[in-house]
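Now read these lines:
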Amino acid sequence: MKAVIFDMDGVVVDSEARWKEVEADFFRATVPGWTEADNDRITGLGVSDLHRFLVEEFDLPMGKVEFLDHCDVSARKVYQDRVDCSEGFLDLARHLKHKGVRTAIASSSPERWIKLVVDRFELSPLLDTIVSADDVGGKTKPLPDVYLEAASRLNLPPGECLAIEDSAIGLLAAKRAGMKVAAYRTAHNEGQDLSTADFELGSFAGLDYDRLISRLRR
């Protein structure tokens, strides 16, 4: 593997749980009958796909523009005030950079949301490229486009890239792109079926390139 490509939400930062905290009142008020199982169904969706899902499944009365504005306000709360980098992520990213392994973020989030995270945690020096939903015309996961674009920008075939994902939707996108995939399993994504991953990780703490690749070879 010559590159490691990270999903952002739930992988680089612990935002999945923070989104649930921030949006709990919204879903209770706007989507009657919303359950924890529904949270699992939307994990990994881009914001436009989320609006479509809520309209189709729950007859959400809110228009797309109003919904996107609402999500932008929530995103600022989540990314500027509530999230932390996942334990060990920064050390792993620094190690990969020192080792000459290329690194990227490939996310279904809008570029402006990713920028909040990158700026707050000063990630730019640790990343070779960042791909957002905006870079692929909104063709978000589970479509493979963000991963294919990341591989193209890294000048690598997808088969030489390892993706790290925390959702079934993201895992499917990376697999469709032809990449190996590590599932990042935490207490916050226990409802996700990550069984098609090549292997699972429970933490980045103490992880380096050799330990990462040894998991892939088992």
About this structure: The CA atoms of residues 141 and 170 lie 6 Å apart. The chain has a mean pLDDT of 93. The chain is about 45% helix and 10% strand.
